[in-house]
Specification:
CATH topology of the largest domain: Glutamine Phosphoribosylpyrophosphate, subunit 1, domain 1
Bound molecules: 6-O-phosphono-alpha-D-glucopyranose
Number of helices: 19
Structural class: alpha/beta
Number of strands: 30
CATH class of the largest domain: Alpha Beta
Distance between the termini: 11 Å
Shape: globular
Strand content: 15-25%
Radius of gyration: 26 Å
């Protein structure tokens, strides 16, 4: 949610900032902006030479409206050494305005791509924000909760606010406190602001220096021979470096082209360690696919394989990385799962799966509810937080709440070193690699795989399943990737159907048991990217109200893979069909009687019923993808959404 990137070093900053922002567009894309500081001009080869060689021809006057957009240049202030360019709309508007960054020279700068929270998407509300005379420029991710209070006080003191954003309060506070020592000013600001923030800061009289600070919103530092970086997420800088450090909470960082210094909240210098990101740049590129979403759908077999295979040896699930002995595992009396969005649907699947396999009761909560509901939990409850990004604000808050209450927390997380990964007692990484598309696909599939492993390991530790059952289950788990591949080979069937129905107004998904959990995910995928209204219902519940919405031609997707529930689901499908619905059946090979009811049937390979969600989700993802495509929508950047929701 909002992307930040910064660079200082030997190269021109603006093209690097734009490149980085492009990789972060999944975090927000309603406007974008950059601030580049003078100091260090450019040689024609793109490297920098000393001194302020900023050509004076770069000043573009006025609020120039870019064709077809409300984009505008901010007029460079002659008194300031910081030049700011902002544009409403996608990053490409900013690219065009700055000639891909070439028209904004300078080797030190910060950039931002916005997901609006306070104030509509507009040039004036887009970042960077500055204090008077552009003495200070700030980019921000997060929410400053007491900004209205700060704004009122500072206005009384004579500060003028131009935007509706919470961020501007930070810019003016920094200006107020700055008297030559940036770290001191940032430290003072930290005591005044509440909420969450990752900030990238330029001070006009400190050329070549970037300052950064974070609380509860992610921010990393990267270093390279050519210079140093800040970024919200590693893909933004992978092209230049893999040598990164996740800035610890409440720490301040000073970057020059050659040095990086960390300070704690008391402004004392502290040492931090860097680590290598193993993801390669290719993983964060589209690699020939039309969209990241399609690429990531196709990466699912590998992602599941990478998540499962290191944890299975000789048919046995190895959960050593949890740091819990078999006795400790056996003692778990209850599991409390918390997550948001698709990760919440994984938890719903886990409830069915873990309860059946390990006979441990599982409670599932939305993180945003859990954190405020003062939960009653048993002593030996294991709290499991599931999150792709590891930064979702509500999931992180739920984790902290659980820890405060004294419970052990396990994080199922995709991003190594993320906040949830660092704060959980144990981490079980999903090895999906970087997921760029806003609508999650491969991370979801790896989260499913992770909960299967957890269920099997727990079932064994508790003696609910024996060695033979464990072997049978792990062997089938290892076969899931090739079964997903088989579904992808037949994608045309679902593609054809999706094109036919892409202008549907309402779609209902129904399922029972595990298939209900899959229906929830299918429905969410669809509404996220195709903007078609859709709802998922436990099929037996439909007749208690919602069936009144079924009318001629409405599409109902019935998911049925559970033998004990198959006939029941078929009856529910008959009920909606007889009220005019057009019925799409999603089932496993073998259940051919589906065709007696469904108008159109999609089959997935047979697997053990407890793993069926991993297969049925694939046609549902493809359905959403091709419906959105059929409507000509931007699949990877759906309106109003952001991939990493780091605000409450
Ligand atoms: C956002 C994304 C969803 C995601 C949810 C939780 O809403 O758009 O796709 O499922 O956040 O994200 P997390 O990173 O915690 O899994």
């Amino acid at each position: 949610m909002c992307g930040i990137v910064g660079f200082t070093g030997r190269l021109q900053a603006a093209p690097i900032l734009l490149d980085g922002l492009e990789k972060l567009e999944y975090r927000g894309y309603d406007s974008a902006g950059i601030a580049v500081a003078a100091g260090g001009g450019a040689r024609p080869d793109g490297t920098a030479e000393g001194g302020d060689a900023r050509p004076d021809s770069t000043a573009e006057g006025g609020d120039a409206q870019a064709a077809g957009s409300a984009a505008a240049f901010a007029r460079p202030d002659s008194e300031s050494a910081i030049e700011i360019v902002k544009a409403k709309g996608r990053l490409k508007v900013l690219r065009e305005m700055t000639d891909d960054g070439r028209s904004v020279p300078g080797t030190c700068g910060i950039g931002h791509t916005r997901w609006a929270t306070h104030g509509e998407p507009s040039v004036v509300n887009s970042h960077p924000h500055c204090a008077k005379n552009k003495r200070v420029a700030v980019v921000h991710n997060g929410i400053i909760e007491n900004y209205q209070d700060i704004r009122a006080r500072l206005t009384k003191e004579g500060f003028t606010f131009l935007s509706e954003t919470d961020t501007e309060a930070a810019a003016h506070l920094l200006d107020k406190y700055y008297s030559g020592d940036p770290v001191e000013a940032i430290g003072k600001m930290m005591f005044r602001i509440r909420g969450s923030y990752a900030l990238g800061i330029l001070f006009a009289d400190r050329p070549g220096e970037i300052y950064a600070v974070r609380k509860d919103s992610p921010l990393i530092v990267g270093r390279s021979e050519e210079g140093n970086f800040i970024a919200s997420d590693a893909p933004a800088i992978l092209r230049y470096t893999r040598d990164v450090c996740f800035i610890p909470n409440l720490e301040i960082v000073k970057l020059t082209g050659t040095e990086i210094h960390f300070y704690n909240v008391d402004q004392e210098e502290v040492e931090e360690t860097f680590s290598q990101v193993s993801w390669d740049t290719e993983a964060a590129e589209k690699g020939g696919f039309a969209h990241f979403m399609l690429k990531e759908i196709y990466e699912q077999p590998k992602a599941v394989r990478d998540t499962v295979s290191p944890r299975i040896s000789e048919g046995h699930v190895n959960l050593e990385e949890l740091g819990m002995s078999q006795e400790e595992l056996a003692k778990i009396s209850r599991i409390q799962m918390v997550a948001c969005g698709s990760a919440y649907h994984v938890c719903m699947t886990a409830k069915y799966m873990v309860e059946q396999t390990a006979r441990v009761p599982v409670d599932v909560d939305l993180a945003s509810e859990f954190r405020y509901r003062n939960p009653v939990m048993e002593k030996d409850t294991l709290v499991v937080v599931v999150s792709q990004s590891g930064e979702t604000a509500d999931s992180l808050a739920a984790l902290r709440e659980a820890k405060k209450l004294g419970y052990r927390v396990l994080g199922i997380v995709n991003v190594v070193g993320s906040s949830i990964a660092r704060e959980a007692d144990s981490v079980f990484y999903t090895w999906a690699g970087p997921e760029i598309s806003v609508a999650t696909t491969k991370a979801y599939s790896t989260q499913l795989a992770a909960v299967y492993l957890l269920a099997i390991g727990l079932g064994r530790a508790k003696g609910v399943i024996g060695e033979a059952a464990e072997k049978e289950m792990t062997a089938e788990l290892m076969r899931l990737p090739e079964k997903i591949e088989r579904i992808l080979e037949e994608k045309e069937r679902i593609q054809w159907f999706a094109n036919k129905f892409s202008y549907s107004r309402d779609i209902f998904f129904i399922g029972r048991g595990l298939d209900y959990a899959s229906s929830l995910e299918g429905s969410l995928k669809l509404k996220e990217i195709s903007y078609i209204h859709s709802e998922a219902y436990a099929a037996g519940e439909l007749k208690h109200g919602t069936i009144s919405l079924i009318e001629d031609g409405i599409l109902v997707v019935g998911v049925a893979t559970q033998s004990g529930l198959f006939e029941k689901l078929i009856s529910n499908m008959v009920e909606v069909k007889s009220r005019g619905a057009y019925v799409l059946g999603v089932t496993s090979y073998g259940y051919y009687s589906m065709e007696d009811v469904a108008n159109y049937t999609v089959y997935v390979p047979k697997t053990m019923e407890c793993f069926a969600a991993s297969l049925t989700v694939v046609p549902l993802q493809l359905l959403a993808y091709y419906m959105a495509l059929g409507k000509g929508l931007d699949v990877d950047k759906p309106r109003n959404l952001a991939k990493s929701v780091t605000v409450e």
